Amino acid sequence: MPRIDAPTVAEHRANQEQALLDAARRLLLEGGPSAVTPAAVGAVAGLGRSGVYKYFRSGGEMLARIVADSFAEWGERVRAAVEQCDTADDQVVAYVRVTLELAGAGAHRVAVLGGGRPGDPAARETLAGHHRDLAAPLQVALAERGDPDPELTSELVNGALGRAIDQLDAGHPVDQVTRGTLEFLCRALQITETH
Question: Domains plus CATH for the chain?
Fold first, then answer.
């Protein structure tokens, strides 16, 4: 029987699963989606390939889980920052700041790399669903500001954020990109930034 290195079997299984996900994430960031195979993940996590199959059926299943977890964590961070704000204007600013902070730390790379093949309709729909969930706090703030079409405006804001993230990926400093993006969006939305 394998050695259990946690107080309970359930905790041991949770720890093993997390170790596999951490290894898969590392492989994804270092080598792209094709690097995430059960054998490679098992080798990094110190578990045989057959042991990996006790937790995940395939590399694709691990990729889907990594992307879902990444979006969930991103969403929690954005919602927490937005909820701490007193005004809708401050909520929009917080949304932009936290999004660029997370992108600057590389969090978006997991979604970009692990999001499936570009022509895969299921992966595309999953990513679209995650993006809708992430945009929800922004849309609420825009509606509170009286925006006549919060959904369209949030798409435009997120388009600007996408280009800002491209600048981060190109090596531009996070502070500079964040400052420029906020100045642009605050002018466009007629927001007076308070902090």
Answer: 1-57 (1.10.10.60), 65-189 (1.10.357)
Q: Look at the block and give the residue holding tokens 């954005």.
A: 78
CA distance 122 to 103: 24
Q: Where are the alpha helices (DSSP H) in the chain?
A: 9-31, 38-45, 49-52, 59-83, 88-104, 107-114, 121-144, 150-169, 174-189
SS3 content of the chain, % helix, strand, coil (to 5): 75, 0, 25
For 24-70, what is each residue's pLDDT tens digit? 989 988 888 889 999 999 999 988 888 899 999 988 889 888 888 88
Retrieve residue 69's tokens.
């977890």
State the pLDDT at residue 149: 96
Instruction: Output the CA–CA distances (angstroms, integers) from residue 8 to 12, 16, 18, 46, 157, in the order listed.
Output: 6, 12, 15, 20, 47
- Residues 175/150, Cβ–Cβ less than 8 Å: no
CA distances to 44, 49, 85, 115 from 6, in Å? 20, 21, 40, 33
Q: In the structure encoding, which two tokens stand for residue 120, read together?
A: 């895969």
Amino acid at 68: A
In this prediction the pTM is 0.78
